Amino acid sequence: MPSSGVALGRETVWFVTGCSSGLGKALAQTIYDAGHRLVATARDVDSLSYLSDDTNVLKFALDVISQGSIIAAINSAIQTWNRIDVFINNAGYSLTGDTEAISESDARLQLETNFWGPVRITKEALRIFREVNPKGQGGTVLQISSMGGWWTAPGHSYYHASKFALEGFTESVAQEVNPDWNIKLMIVAPGGDPYEFRWA
C-alpha cells in the first residue's frame, strides 16, 4: 500500500465526519484510543458524548450539506492545532426504494449528503494541505464509499449514483494534484470482511 505521506504519530490531527454511529463512531473511538488528536463531527453534537472531553478531542456539530458548518469546524481545528493531517469523509446514508417512487427532493438530498458533502470537504482539505500544513507535509483524504460504488442492486439507484460519483471524482482529483504537494486520496469500500481499501 502506498505511503500516505503523513507520519501517523500521537500528534496526527484527524478530521472525521459522521461520528455519531456505525463506522464513523468506530473510527473516532479508535483514533481517540490511540491517543491521536481528533476532530469528531456529527449533525447532533450530543451524539458524540461517548468521547471524553479532553485536550485531544474537539467535537463539532457539522452538516455536510452546509458549507458554513464545514468552514467553522475546520477553522476551529486549525486555530487549535495549526494543521489537519487526515480528513475522513464518512457521513452518509442509503436511500432505498423504487426509483420512480422516490421524490426528486429526496434523491437530491441523497446526492447532497453522499457526494456533494465530501466534495466540499475535499476541496477544503486540498487548500489546508497546500496552504496551512507545513510545506511539503501534505495530507490524506479518505473517502468512505462502499461496494455500492462499483456494484449495483435494485432499490438503491440514487445511493449507487452517489457512490459512483464520489469514486469517479476522487480518482480524477488524485490525478490532478501536484506530486510535490504530497497529497493522497484514498477510497475505502466497506462491504464485507475484511473491508476493501483502494487507493485513487
From TrEMBL:
It comes from the Eukaryota. InterPro entries: NAD(P)-bd_dom_sf (IPR036291), SDR_fam (IPR002347), SDR_oxidoreductase (IPR051911). The keyword Membrane does not apply. GO terms for molecular function: oxidoreductase activity. Gene3D superfamilies: NAD(P)-binding Rossmann-like Domain. The keyword Nuclease does not apply. SUPFAM superfamilies: NAD(P)-binding Rossmann-fold domains (SSF51735). Keywords: Oxidoreductase. Belongs to the short-chain dehydrogenases/reductases (SDR) family. This is NAD(P)-binding protein. It comes from Penicillium citrinum. The lineage of its organism: Eukaryota, Fungi, Dikarya, Ascomycota, Pezizomycotina.
